[in-house]
Amino acid sequence: xxxxxxxxxxxxxxxxxxxxxxxxxxxxxxxxxxxxxxxxxxxxxxxxxxxxxxxxxxxxxxxxxxxxxxxxxxxxxxxxxxxxxxxxxxxxxxxxxxxxxxxxxxxxxxxxxxxxxxxxxxxxxxxxxxxxxxxxxxxxxxxxxxxxxxxxxxxxxxxxx
Length: 161
What we know:
This protein has 161 residues and is mainly beta. 12% of the residues lie in helices and 32% in strands.
C-alpha cells in the first residue's frame, strides 16, 4: 500500500435496494459488518449467495470522480455506488490480501468489489457498471469491533494474518 489515505464518507443501507444513508461515525462488528447495514443484518441483495465476506466495501473518491469526468461522464454520486466507505489517497486494489487500519479498526482486503448489473438497475445510469470495472472498490473483512469516523486515517499494518 502506498501512502496513507483518509476515510471521507460512510454510508449504509438497512435493507437491499434502500438508498444509502450517510453517517459521520459507525460501529464495526468483527466478522459481521457495520452496525445497521443490510449485510450485517443479513438483508443485502447478495447476503445468501456464498460469494465471500461482505462485512464492508470501500471505494476511492478518485475513481468516482473519474467516472464523472471521463469521456461523456456518468453523473454517479458516491452514495449511488452502494459502497460503505469512501476513501481518498489510497490505492484500494493494492489491499487485496493485505491487512490495514481505518482509524483503530483492522480490516483485511478480501477481493475487488467489481460492479454488477444491479448497480445499473438501481441507479438507472447506463454505462456505470462498465465505467467502474477494476475500480469499483474493495470488499474487506472487519477484524475488530470498533468505531469508524469520517476523517480517520487509512494505513497498512505490520500484522499479515
